[in-house]
Amino acid sequence: MGCGSSMDTQTNPVVTEVSSEMQPRQNGASGNVVEQYVRLDEQISKLEGTCPGPRMATAEAWVEHIQSKHEAMLGLEGMGVAPMREREWETEEALPLPAYTMGRQGDPIVANTPTKDLAQLAYNLGVIGDARKASMHEDFFANLSESALYLLSIRYYGELLEHTKVRLKTLVESYAELNELYVRQDGIIAYISGGTYMTRLEERIDEQLETARDTRDKLGSALEQWRICGLLLRAAANSSTQALKQWRQLGRIIDPKQKLQWALDCRSLLHASTISLEAAQLALPHVELKYMSHRQVLAVKHCNTYLITDIANKARYEHTSRVFTSYESNMSKTCTWLYETFNSTLRPDYDKAEETVCRLAKTLRDHREEVFSTVRK
Q1: Dist CA 366 CA 269 (whole Å)
Q2: 101-142, pLDDT tens digit by residue?
Q3: pTM to 2 decimals?
Q4: Chain segment 228-237, per-residue pLDDT in tens
Q5: Do residues 368 and 241 touch, judged by C-beta distance below 8 A?
Q6: Residues 226, 80: contact at Cβ < 8 Å?
Q7: Residues in the chain where the model's pLDDT stays below 50
Q8: CB atoms within 10 A of CB 350
Q9: How many CB atoms lie within 10 A of CB 287?
Q10: What's the maximum distance between 2 C-alpha atoms anywhere in the chain?
Q11: Domain residues of the chain, as ranges?
């Protein structure tokens, strides 16, 4: 009867129950049921404007996508222990890394990277302040970093999955609320009209409204994709800015332990940025992100892998600084570009579609109010 959106509600009003509920209220107050219809329709129009159904469908698909990727990363064999090269170390100062223990919720891979062990090992080997030692051990620390960053990737995707589930829960609740309103409104309409259109004008407006809703809902689904991508790009840009500040400050730190800790923090921030960027591209796969190239991301990842042993080498430190600076600048530009593109394309289209839906919904509401009032008298 035109009360639902283009998304299936999967519920059917029980007319007899609604009728029995309404009957006592109609004694001496014939206008109450019509007023209830108007109030419900206004509530529905407002809640529909947030597109909970289409957004929910997009969020569900996103949860499945991220969960699949996260599970694939956890399922790879051989990642329980850092995949470093098998070779003996010719130094008494080298500390063996402990085996990874069971992590949160019993995961076989710990959620946190073994930064304390890595930091102690790097300090004992003297790779922070001695370029010769750093060069001698760079392959070892590169492999160790790759392992640690892989574990960090699992952690970040796990956190992203949890945040996405929270978003989905909110949309599911909104959609359930909207369905409940649909049921109540359909019951009122069925109680008054018997479930049939009362005028040809009512039928024609309702058909136009359903078409407009379908267009708005499709745009609403796309809106959620752009929202996810935008939030992830903003997170990537913020992390890259923080990482660059850390890296620049690093050059002025003298204490080896403090310098090492800042380097590890910088590495984590940069990795968080590249993971957020990767996820943003997954969220909006058909849109090519301007200013950010695959080659540049690979350069950042390479520098991040060798970050610990490059600190002592002035030339490498300066090269890494240039890579990080360029990445941070382009990351910021990419984020700005996405929002500007969204505001100049999808946002106006959605606003126009929503305006059409609101106009038609009000026209239908006013017409039904007039017809229903006449019938109730």
Answers
A1: 56
A2: 233 333 333 334 456 667 777 878 878 888 898 888 899 889
A3: 0.80
A4: 999 999 999 9
A5: no
A6: no
A7: 1-30, 76-113
A8: 21
A9: 15
A10: 98
A11: 15-95+117-376
